[in-house]
Design a protein that fits this description.
- By secondary structure, the chain is α/β, with parallel strands linked by helices.
- The chain has twelve helices and five strands.
- It has helices spanning 3-15, 23-41, 43-52, 65-85, 131-137, 159-167, 174-187, 189-205, 212-227, 232-264, 268-279, 281-290, and strands spanning 88-91, 101-105, 108-114, 143-148, 169-173.
- It has a five-stranded mixed beta sheet.
- A hairpin with a 2-residue loop joins β2 (101-105) and β3.
């Protein structure tokens, strides 16, 4: 990966933490800036985003505004990737019970959802991947895709693979999308759209199984079949994925180790104050105190 990728990552992690009081305004501004970045710096910028966006910054608070905007950022990256492949795509800004990304072109349509996780997170369950929900959010469109960092997906067995095949929901990695983006840049949008469709069609033909190796063998063979003589793109993207993980781990470890050192230097009282703050006890106390009975009982 290029040295510029780390710099771009640092800039965007910082920018996404600069919030206003309006999530919709922040989301719209973020999408506009991302599109501007890609227009100005081309496919290399998009690839930088694709390869590194799967890791949620460790210093973002859990369920915080920063984390929610970051989730919308990953959707925007995936939408931008569909556009680079040759589809018309948009990010759904309304926070409703619906898919976050829609795309159409090449004779087919799809909904998609992008997933990102903290490297420090241990347990993930099938609900995190929204396979069943995506199937329901299809609403008559042809395909449904959930895009994940490959290193966060189950590598042995998982019900998500069986569910995905049974419901015809394609689990795809950012690395697969990156290879398709590069392929479309080299061969043209028609080839990019056809290759994506080939992968989407392959999902429904796989034998329903929880086996991760079987699932990814089918997806990878479909990708390689679409790339044809350009299968070297997949080889280089697999290498880029390893390099991206190194960058993500370095970023996460730097913050976590710094935070550990800071806590170890606290006095006893400072540590108690920090614990109370971390648990949100003051705000929870105020919430309980504010509850009134009302007069609904007459």
């Amino acid at each position: 990966m290029r040295p510029e990728a780390t710099k771009r990552r640092q800039y965007w992690v910082s920018e996404l933490a600069k919030l206003s009081e309006s999530f919709s305004n922040d989301s719209a501004q973020m999408i506009q800036e991302l599109r501007s970045d890609i227009r100005k710096n081309g496919i290399d910028a998009l690839l930088d985003h694709l390869r590194l966006c799967g890791s949620v910054p460790e210093h973002y608070g859990h369920d915080s505004s920063e984390e929610k905007l970051y989730s919308k950022y990953t959707d925007a990256v995936v939408s931008g990737s569909f556009q680079a492949i040759g589809l018309q795509s948009t990010v759904i800004l309304a926070r409703a019970d619906a898919a976050d990304v829609q795309a159409t072109g090449g004779g087919y349509s799809l909904v998609a959802d992008a997933k990102a996780f903290r490297l420090s997170r241990t347990a993930k369950n099938q609900k995190d991947f929204k396979i069943q929900a995506l199937d329901g959010w299809r609403n008559g469109l042809d395909y449904a895709i959930v895009v994940c960092p490959i290193y966060q997906l189950p590598s042995r067995t998982s019900q998500i693979y069986q569910q995905a095949i049974a419901r015809n929901v394609c689990i795809l990695s950012y690395s697969h999308l990156a290879a398709l983006v590069r392929f479309a840049a080299e061969r043209g949008a028609r080839h990019g759209k056809n290759s994506l469709k080939r992968i989407l069609d392959a999902t429904s033909t796989l034998h329903p199984s929880k086996n991760a190796v079987d699932y990814w063998y089918g997806i990878n063979q479909a990708l390689l079949g679409g790339l044809g003589k350009h299968r070297n793109l997949w080889t280089s993207e697999k290498k880029a994925s390893l390099e991206a993980l190194v960058i993500a781990k370095k970023e996460a470890l730097k913050y976590l180790r710094t935070e550990r050192d800071r806590l170890l230097k606290l006095t006893h009282q400072q540590a108690l104050d920090e614990l109370i703050r971390a648990m949100g006890l003051e705000s929870r106390i105020k919430q309980v105190e504010s509850i009134e009975h009302g007069n609904l009982l007459g």
